[in-house]
TrEMBL record:
<comment type="similarity">
    <text>Belongs to the glycosyltransferase 1 family. Bacterial/plant glycogen synthase subfamily.</text>
</comment>
<feature type="compositionally biased region" description="Low complexity">
    <location>
        <begin position="152"/>
        <end position="165"/>
    </location>
</feature>
<feature type="domain" description="Starch synthase catalytic">
    <location>
        <begin position="314"/>
        <end position="556"/>
    </location>
</feature>
<keyword id="KW-0150">Chloroplast</keyword>
<feature type="compositionally biased region" description="Basic and acidic residues">
    <location>
        <begin position="272"/>
        <end position="303"/>
    </location>
</feature>
<keyword id="KW-0934">Plastid</keyword>
<dbReference type="GO" id="GO:0009011">
    <property type="term" value="F:alpha-1,4-glucan glucosyltransferase (ADP-glucose donor) activity"/>
</dbReference>
<dbReference type="Pfam" id="PF13692">
    <property type="entry name" value="Glyco_trans_1_4"/>
</dbReference>
<dbReference type="InterPro" id="IPR011835">
    <property type="entry name" value="GS/SS"/>
</dbReference>
<keyword id="KW-0035">Amyloplast</keyword>
<keyword id="KW-0809">Transit peptide</keyword>
<dbReference type="GO" id="GO:0010021">
    <property type="term" value="P:amylopectin biosynthetic process"/>
</dbReference>
<comment type="pathway">
    <text>Glycan biosynthesis; starch biosynthesis.</text>
</comment>
<dbReference type="GO" id="GO:0004373">
    <property type="term" value="F:alpha-1,4-glucan glucosyltransferase (UDP-glucose donor) activity"/>
</dbReference>
<dbReference type="GO" id="GO:0009507">
    <property type="term" value="C:chloroplast"/>
</dbReference>
<dbReference type="GO" id="GO:0019252">
    <property type="term" value="P:starch biosynthetic process"/>
</dbReference>
<keyword id="KW-0808">Transferase</keyword>
Amino acid sequence: MASLGRAGTAAFFLEPSRSCGQPRAAGFCVPVRCRLNCLDLHSRAGEFRFLRAGNGERHMGFTWRDRGTGRVLPAVGRKGAADGAEDGGEDDMGDVDVDGDEVLKATIEKTKRALSVQKSLLEQIVERRKLVSSMKESVIKTGKETVPPNKSDASFSSLSSDTTSGMARNKYKKFSYSTSEAAETLSANTNGAAIKKKFQNEEVEVSGDAKEISMLSSKIESSDDEKKENEDGLLAESSIAESLGLLREPSSKVSQSKAVPSLLPKVSEAFTAKDEQREESEEKSQDDPDDKTDVAPKEEDVKSPPLAGLNVMNVILVAAECAPWSKTGGLGDVAGALPKALARRGHRVMVVVPRYGNYSGPQEIGLRKRYKVDGQDMEVTYYLTYIDGVDFVFIDSPIFRHRESNIYGGERADILKRMVLLCKAAVEVPWHVPCGGVCYGDGNLVFIANDWHTALLPVYLKAYYRDNGSMKYTRSVLVIHNIAHQGRGPVDEFRIVDLPGHYVDLFRLYDLVGGEHLNIFAAGLKTADRVVTVSHGYSWELKTLEGGWGLHEIINENDWKLRGIVNGIDTEDWNPEVDVHLKSDGYTNYSLETLNMGKPQCKAALQKELGLPVRPEVPVVAFIGRLDHQKGVDIIAEAIPWMVSQDMQLVMLGTGRSDLEDMLRSFQGNHCGKVRSWVGFSVKMAHRITAGADVLLMPSRFEPCGLNQLYAMMYGTIPLVHAVGGLRDTVVPFNPYEESGFGWTFDRAKAGKLIDALRNCFNTFWNYKESWEGLQRRGMLQDLSWDHAAQLYEEVLVAAKYQW
Ligand SMILES: Nc1ncnc2c1ncn2[C@@H]1O[C@H](COP(=O)(O)OP(=O)(O)O[C@H]2O[C@H](CO)[C@@H](O)[C@H](O)[C@H]2O)[C@@H](O)[C@H]1O
């Protein structure tokens, strides 16, 4: 007879069960597995406590699985321990048996039914797979016959503005270099992003097949979903199939894409899938060695789904801004997009940001908490919404309200107070805020803090909790988007930070610029379990005297935990094919196939909207960005006399330092026929300029990653950048001899260098149309999505998890 073991032993699995039919209300339990495989239970949202697995308490909604026998034992709806539980299990087990015979039988029945459904499902999958692979073979055969044997003879010139997608696709086969050459060239892009597969001829030809597979998968998944609802208490068959690697798309992806949160615990689902995967394989290998009929034959061309698998974690990203609700720059974009990519990989993901405005959508959840900030009690309430698999939690407090247009404005001490409140509240969100009915809890949890604004979070996690023995399994990762802003202030502002006196040393820093001062970023870098920055180039620069802005020594000391990961982009938001800002005023959506028609139309619409002469033959050069020293607007100013002497047009969009805003206005005033300056923050204009311009200028003095050059490449707009930080990582210079690369780079932030690069760029624009089109198409063909970066982030999260 199976027994429940002692507390903390590795003898048992705990499974969430749906048999009690209870919703994910506060008061029910979430299982958390510690790394030694002993079990801790969290109970009750709001009052968070650990219970050891063997203390005899029973928790409604869970079953126990004895690892030794694999038997599932119910622990239904009873609370209160059998005292004997601490001593071993027989007493306890007897207790279960007396009450649970009926339930046990029912469970066994249900398990049998689940297995038979699973078996038939697997048979269907095997059948459909055979069908699909035979279709695939025949399509590849046909396709191969149509590929010209000497692909390298063809050139870009053969690409026409043909809008018939089939014809256009055939013409891609006529790229001037072979697939392997192209792959080699493009792999030089240190972004590391996979090149879109349609670039490869074979993939273009089998795309119909891929569609077929995904249709089949989704059919199977939707039938799984139905079954999930019908088979109360049974494990979803789709997770079983998924765990066996039989579905291309994870079922979690399907459920995450639903806008309405499921009533069933997401954590539990993740654990179910995880446990199921392991137990299924254990059962297959140990208990039933002969039964091989259920397992589909391995096919070499079926890749395992890009999911986190056993690394599934709870992730909470905390930031001062998050698009589309609040954004002053790239941080907002990252906070809006990275979490969705992590959720697509199967993680349970939350974003915590201040609620600056009255956003429609997020709903108040009726919870209030109070935190002390600089000696004053501040009450916060929470707003919640669930989008694309991510829980967005907004912290509401009078100190955040109506700041949407001035997030980082005000006195330095006031900004610090806002960030103290954000971090204090955020670190406790996993205890208090039930998302989909259940709090995240603090086991298997990683916070991702961003820039100095939330660098206090790792410090609070350590000082308030981990140094005091709680939140032992919670980790923090700090992302550096821009080291130039550090939260510097006088040391006596330490009182605002509200920590015991001996923590001051984490914050105290001396450098030539600030003398002895309080540095929030420094403390965060020291206490975070891992540090990420947004490109490889920048991770190197940070360690230099010039690039570290006074923090290079701390960064060097913590080099072991630093990693550079190039940002991705939100390919739903920044995609010329579906961009909502290109649907009116003469603009149009376009794709690789319709580039030759769509892009000129957008260019004409932009010229018209800005009151510039509508002339397709002049290059339109654009700048979009925050107006500060970093972005090198003054370098453009120096280059303007030469630029306006050329037959070109310059469009600038930006807001920031008032002297630089005035400078922008003066550009337009002095060169009205050729220059347009838009001073202000306009997401719509940013999209339209990116679509309508031919060239995007980024003469940044330093650029941790840069997103605009990535957006530009997606829109067939050629980046011309100072080769620094992430710009150097992502913009491979154009090589006219090999017809490779994505744009122009210059190696020093000087007007003369910028002019040299522009001269070459204009020359290509005017005289080498085919090369120009090649640049555009190579840029557009890259996969710049967050998916690859999210996978790398996941590696960091896992490293943090196992960091002691
Ligand atoms: N006036 C305006 N109107 C509308 N939109 C505007 C705008 N000015 C800027 N934007 C938008 O803000 C974003 C700017 O992103 P960047 O990455 O270029 O810069 P930022 O320096 O803010 O970010 C920092 O963080 C990001 C994210 O990690 C790093 O890429 C970057 O190098 C680092 O400096 C883009 O989406 C851009 O379109």
